């Protein structure tokens, strides 16, 4: 359990804004591509950062590439090569953060504060050699600490590192800048990692679908992990995993306002059980359902199907095996996987069709996944009754079900998804503006 | 004196083309911004480089940033900061070469050859800490050599290095990519450094002014130094100085044709004296003339004037002191300096006006400088008679004169410059298409 200084959200109840945590806090603040999309926005970020520095904080800023820079660079790469080598693609893409971080350092200097920018390599972000999706092995932020000790604001390129083995430049893949920020916060033992984005934080559902979705002030790492895994785009799974492992308090907030965002922190087990909180409803339209029809109903067949798909580097999500039709000796196996990997999964299955002996594959990309998340549900069995009751009342057919201790997920028709989200959100009264997180106790409220 | 292998131009008389030097030569080839301005040009460069590799050469390619990239980055910098810190400006601008080198490596890989790109830092280009105009202290190209040993083409970012003291990214300033190429060629003991540009090499005069200007096949380091210092833009002074110091044979040639260019090499003294070659006429419109009027005619005054200007970091070029008007005790001092430094020079002089006691300054930016260059002239006194005779015959008034052992320079009205260049070029018959360099012997031909 970290000290009180590392959990500022716990001290006052009200989530703090950057710069008002406590005198001389050490903050790592990450600004995404839309926050540094042009010169004017970079200057606004500079003002915000300098204000925090003048309040007495030590500030490390992690930046993504400006707006569309990465797409423009990818487009150039495509023009010279249909399949660019991964090492060179990383070399190319890392130019994007180099541009934004240098411009931010300039803008800060112009405001009279001292700033120094550092590449991932200079910041000590050491990774493995998996170009395009490198994993952070170690962070040795000696130059960052030196810059802070000299009173400067340190600006660090997100999304990039240097390979421990080859010394080549690597990129961390999707959500990489968030992960850079959390990893630096952990290595520097920062008081908080602030993730600036284009929304005010995490909500009880997507406000575009549920107009009365409620802002979540505080959420546990475990709940945020489930939210991220189930389609909430505000934080990447990897970044939350990293934050949980090193107990880094994360503050997700808007770069366009000074409102408090959502704190992702450790929440004591006792507190969670007692309050039985349901956090929110996440949804995901990015997956498709693959059905392997007519598999021989004998041991090892399901394993062979899943191994073939996994070997092709496709992440399986929800899985269901329909019991065999009496006497046929055959069974169907369904799973969901990212639509982007649909072709890969089908190709991998086709290769093992003869060997496994299934009849055919079906591919359905008109599905939607809905997940209810809350650490409270594990000790309150009434939750699932209410969950499925609300879907039934709304006339929604459930195709696949999967659960964890703090989550229930279902697959429905994609056209049913919005009304399903609203039904569940309403059934648990998540939109109630008076609740500090809806308190759900047992079978009724 | 280098071995024959290091002086390919000497072996055959005819300058070789890239890839036809000798089997398994080690070549460093530099392509400027216009050669890599878009995806299509990058692919053309890739083809050229791969062809050379397939001919059996080891190839290191140094690239500049694509076309207008540097200007676009400077424009962004200006938008966020009126006076960007030099360290951050270097961080920003070096993104340009990172983009072009990664794209070139991709394009080469697509053609089936192996390529690896390296930043200045990765290539071992160690500099001092003078951001924006760093000087190369050392080159430790271990990773380049390893890439070559593994059969890869090494692509290196020009114009950039890493500071020995601070480990910060530096840029080498104007002509930096040429200098990177020559420095790498020296460190790798390459057989030649090929500088690809948008012209076919060095000419006896600017072909835009002198239509029958002759292509120069071979020129000594010393002559090329004078040419570069006197306005020939094809190679930067710094790069030639570096090449001379390490005896790197430089081949300046067009990236848009396969014609032989101009070899800049060591040429034995005996050969030069014997042939008495006049190489060409250079001109320069980038300077202005400053006149300090009414200086006290006593020892130390000229030194005080020049010190004031030099302390402001202005490079003085040609200097003349007009003898004092009889009895006045006053004299005028004139010098030329880059127009870009005009304001700086005048401001520096204004500060010391009272102390030195001169009357006023005059500023004239309508001047042009013409220089005749050739290692042969030092032992042939008839050269200057013919030089000044040709200007007099053309009715051109000479304002300042300066000479070295292998150069005569004059300042004239800028409007007189084209006819002055043509007059001198014609007087020495430099346009003669039969000459292999015009042989000028004594007082006649």
TrEMBL record, chains A, B:
Record keywords: Amino-acid biosynthesis, ATP-binding, Diaminopimelate biosynthesis, Kinase, Lysine biosynthesis, Nucleotide-binding, Transferase
User: Which residues participate in substrate binding?
Assistant: 70, 97
User: What class does this enzyme belong to in the EC scheme?
Assistant: transferase
| Record-annotated membrane-spanning stretches | none
User: What CDD domains does the database record attribute to this sequence?
Assistant: AAK_AKii-LysC-BS (cd04261), ACT_AKii-LysC-BS-like_1 (cd04913), ACT_AKii-LysC-BS-like_2 (cd04936)
Q: What EC number(s) does its UniProt record assign?
A: 2.7.2.4
Q: Which residues bind ATP?
A: 30-33, 197-198, 208, 233-234
Catalysed reaction, written as an equation: L-aspartate + ATP = 4-phospho-L-aspartate + ADP
Give any Pfam family that matches. Answer: AA_kinase
Q: Which InterPro entries match?
A: AceGlu_kinase-like_sf, ACT-like_dom_sf, ACT_Aspartokinase, ACT_dom, AKii-LysC-BS, Asp/Glu/Uridylate_kinase, Asp_kin_monofn, Asp_kinase
Q: Per the record, GO CC terms?
A: cytosol
User: Which GO biological process entries does UniProt record here?
Assistant: diaminopimelate biosynthetic process; homoserine biosynthetic process; lysine biosynthetic process via diaminopimelate; threonine biosynthetic process
Q: Which Gene3D superfamilies match?
A: 3.30.70.260, Acetylglutamate kinase-like (3.40.1160.10)
Q: What does this protein do?
A: Catalyzes the phosphorylation of the beta-carboxyl group of aspartic acid with ATP to yield 4-phospho-L-aspartate, which is involved in the branched biosynthetic pathway leading to the biosynthesis of amino acids lysine, threonine, isoleucine and methionine.
**Annotated PANTHER family:** ASPARTATE KINASE, ASPARTOKINASE
- Could you tell me what this protein is called? Aspartokinase
